[in-house]
Amino acid sequence: MALKKAAAQATTTDDERQRDRDLDGLVLALADADPLARRWAARDLVAYPTATTALIAQLMVESEPSVMEVILTTLTRIGDEQAVIGLVQCLRSEDAMLRNAAIEAMKLLPDEVAPMMGRLLADADPDVRIFAVNVLESLRHPQVENWLLRVITDDAHINVCATAVDLLGEVGSEVAVPALRALKQRFTEEPYIQFAADLALKRIAAG
Amino acid sequence: MGVTLKRILVIDDAATVRLYHRGILEAAGFAVSEAINGLEALERVAEAPFDLYVVDINMPKLDGYGFLRELRSKDIPQAPAIMVSTEAAANDQKLAYVSGANLYLIKPVRPERLLAHVLTLLGLSVAPRDPHQGRHQ
Amino acid sequence: MMEPTTISDDEFQKFREFFYRKTGILFEDSKRYFVDKRLLERMTLTACETFRSYFTMLRFQTSGEELQALINAMTVNETYFFREEYQFQCLVNSMLEEIVAQRTTNAPIRIWSVPSSSGEEPYSIAIYLLEYWPHLTRWDVEIISSDIDTQILNQARRGLYTPRAVQHLPASLLKKYFQRDGEYYQIGTELRDAVEFTRVNVSDAADMRLHRQFDVIFCRNLLIYFDDLSRKQTAESFYDALNPGGFVCLGHSESMSRISSLFRVRKFPEAIVYQKPWGSR
User: Between chains, do C21 and B61 touch, taking CB under 8 Å as contact?
Assistant: First the structure.
């Protein structure tokens, strides 16, 4: 027994890829009993943007985290409007893991998410608004600061504001100063808001 | 001094929240480490377990529930965990306790409240250091 | 134009948090001088007069080019024999022990080193196994090493190294496995026959599909240069390239906790590595 060179490049086992690799075959494989087959199907479906609906449908019922992760990566790589609509649906899921994974995926799709931002930030569910602010973190978009200012000026929910202030410490400019001061006035009794707003103000003044 | 400080791990994806919790706990004489999500927290725990955990729920890669479930399944010295959440929903609370939390607090947490609970969970009557002396929140 | 000269405390904090979030690298206060110096260099090179303008570019640049350039500047990446040796110790003392204990067949153990770069890492692994893994008498081991760059692969196959590349090798091992060739050191046939080199683009699913059934993957200081999506995609491909219970070793400043939740963190006495759970499929 010793070190030896691998004979062939790899010992490929095609068992997980038995079905046809066309759209119909892959969509079928997406429901295979074997998670490995489902992962390969989800990965190969990147070649078929029309598969978005099938991917989202599987995501909603998928129980195996490794398959979920690959489906989300494929949706991100497809990254069209349908994919983003599907991800937004996930924000309302009861499953915390799915919600957080969807936020991560959306962070990688700034241009596609941007058109929906206004609506998400006005959603009736404060959790969805918090998630939307989380997504803003990675958005390379000229509107980001304005969106954040609107949140800390208008949003009644303290934790939505708190999430926005956290980000303003990073992206805020002098423009944000009056809104941050007003926020402190609005929540005078809340030590966290005082702390976070002061930190943002300090960073803006320094930067 | 020869006294080992109690070590607390603050787990939250928001930098400002970590800084806020750290400030409160350090002022009271605890040694604080930070992690940005549940997976990173598990790495810190692998290096050395902590005396207490302050855990956010919604985080990328591994959320607070997932972190607690993993933590509680480990064969290491266990320690109390406070879950902090933006949500008051009964379902979230239940899930937190089922996952292994010892306490569920709604954000934003007031400094004196966080500290009082930390002391109780650690079985201390007073903070290792008076947080109102010197730097305060 | 005015050259930027200083980074304030608050700017450092703000940068540190951002960089930590993006890369998982947390600069301690003791690294302040180093960080400031690199930042100021990048600011000068990009004609940013203030930290604020530089930071804005860093955050909002769609291509992410400047973030890459900055990561390059912040992470010194030099390859040499026995670099991050503690991971090779971990391989022979801990990882392989666990793997052979669970083995039900006598199929070869497969180790993948990617990127191969000029070969220092795969040959280091070969030396380590030959020297320090007693069970090599009972198991076959295949070492495969891959890179996207065919020129560097040829260089790796050739195996000609400068004194600098081999300076961390004990003299006895240098003598045993290399021949002196003028100024250079040439690997001997024992090492040459121990490593198979292949060309792979880790972001390409078709390439990755040909590389399977590994027990350990070394992928050090590569993912840090990728964008978030490519990094995640590569980690997912590694998951399917590994046997259940297989390990991934990343560079010392990299952490899987920023990349993917597929793996479990495993702490061994020598190192922290990532594992595809036993019993997973």
Answer: no
